[in-house]
Amino acid sequence: MNNQQPQMNVNLAGQPAFFCPACGSEGFIPTIKLVYLDMFHSPTKKDALIPVPMGAVCGQCGKPAEVNNHWKQLLRDKQKAAKKGGDA
Predict the structure, then answer these.
(1) Gap between the Cα atoms of 46 and 71, Å rounded
(2) CA 31 – CA 41 distance, rounded (Å)
């Protein structure tokens, strides 16, 4: 079994960055939820704590990153700009 992650070469130059809407910071801390898996449900037959990604909080002010709202607003702005460009 091959457990290596695929290597991706992606150029992020010119891509929009996410900023905290509360303080304007670009730094975020990932958050996880630890889920207990008992040995009766575990494929390894051992108790385990499973980390489940939950999102991120701002590294400066601690507010949760509302990424979905941010991208929805970007999409709305792009659609408005496209409409204005089409009306000209």
Answers:
(1) 40
(2) 25
CA 33 to mean position of chain CA atoms: 15
User: What gap in Å lies between CA 83 and CA 75, rounded to an integer?
Assistant: 12
Polymer length of the chain? 88
Summarised one tens digit per residue, pLDDT across range 41-87 is 999 999 999 999 988 899 999 998 877 676 777 778 888 888 877 55
| Cβ atoms within 10 Å, residue 31 | 13
Would you list the DSSP string of 27-86? -EEEEEEEEEE-TTT-TTSS-EEEEEEEEEEETTT-PBP-HHHHHHHHHHHHHHHHHHHH
Q: Assess contact for 32 and 40: CB atoms under 8 A.
A: no
What tokens appear for 66 in the block? Answer: 């509302």
pTM of the model: 0.57
